[in-house]
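Lecture 7, part 2: worked example. A protein chain together with potassium ion.
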Amino acid sequence: ASNKKLLVLPGDGIGPEVMREAVRVMGWLEQNRAVRFDISEDLVGGASIDVHGVPIRDEVIAAARAADAVLFGSVGGPKWADVAFENRPEVAILRLRSELELFANLRPATVLDPLVGASTLKPEIVRGLDIMIVRETVGGVYFGEPRGIETLADGSQRGVNTEVYSTHEIERVARVAFELARKRQNRVCSVEKCNVMESGLLWRQVVTRLGRAEYPDVELSHMLADNCAMQLVRNPRQFDVIVTGNLFGDLLSDLASMLTGSLGMLPSATLGTADADGRRPALYEPIHGSAPDIAGTGKANPLAQIASLAMLLRYSLGLDDEAALIERACTNVLASGLRTPDIMSEGGTPVGTSGMGDAVLAELDRLNG
Ligand code: NAD
Ligand code: IPM
Ligand code: K
Ligand code: MN
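Predicted complex, written out as structure tokens:
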């Protein structure tokens, strides 16, 4: 088989710092396992603005389309606070999602045993937690029209964004959630605000209909988004798969990350629709951003980026053993007590970004014999 084509897009701030550690893991795989990658790398976000004047070039979008998978870092930062809104660094990830139609963003929140004490919640609330948030990523209020800032006749202004969801958009993301649930605990909780928003009302109707027609074996429940935020903190283990729209999914997944100890622990996969040849466009990234407050200090936790690589191996390349090996190595390193500052707890051994990467590689060597 030909080498798998991977596009690596580190981005800004801690993006390149944590990506470096993920790339070292790729190198380890090539040296020690029967996998070969064809890796290319490019600039996105502020780094691309600085060199090319735009947050992402059309040729990078084309390369992402042609790749077997994209490993994305993070974009944005105060340096680009003054660039025009339509040219800001974040446009890079929004365009990739939208133009490759990466509509299903899988954000797993699992509490690893060694990190139970790193959560801000009580151990008995979070121990063993394993939830999957499926966030819609190409629709909703992020992309709905009309949008913009309008100046009215009296000179005052209005900022406008519009939440829009169509039957088709709701069905396809809900299908991903139902399919995932069947391989997990067989439960889906659909989250919206149908008490206030028509887009939420349609969401509930469509998910209910689809569940009855095609997934009667999956237990379906519904929850209003504000209650869901509260329930995630009160008793997060009540959830298996949560399916929700773009904005609620953004908020709820950052919230869920703190159950696991840190935003620096959560990976994600964003999947599109398979074409006739069975090729499915996919992008993998940590859910965190460029963390300008710690960029350059060498303290960022690289585990979400490394775990995003593991998801890439599993979902896009079918390398389940390699994915499991990487996840195992990360868990063991945490069990040995090594901690970046974001997950530090009593008795932990402090380590920085590259120290954590070193430890993962050493553990991979050990596990691989
Ligand atoms: P952020 O996720 O970058 O950081 C939030 C907090 O979490 C910060 O205190 C940060 O230090 C901490 N944190 C995040 N990742 C960490 C890690 N790996 N290790 C240790 N600590 C970590 O969110 P923000 O500060 O609101 O946003 C900063 C920039 O990132 C903004 O420009 C935002 O638009 C962008 N952003 C980009 C993406 C993306 O590229 N997909 C995602 C989220 C935010
Ligand atoms: C995320 C980020 C992005 C989002 C931003 C950077 C566009 O917060 O990936 O969670 O809001 O989707
Ligand atoms: K990111
Ligand atoms: Mn976010």
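The chain has twelve helices and 14 strands. The first strand starts at residue 4 and ends at 11. Keep this in mind for problem set question 3.
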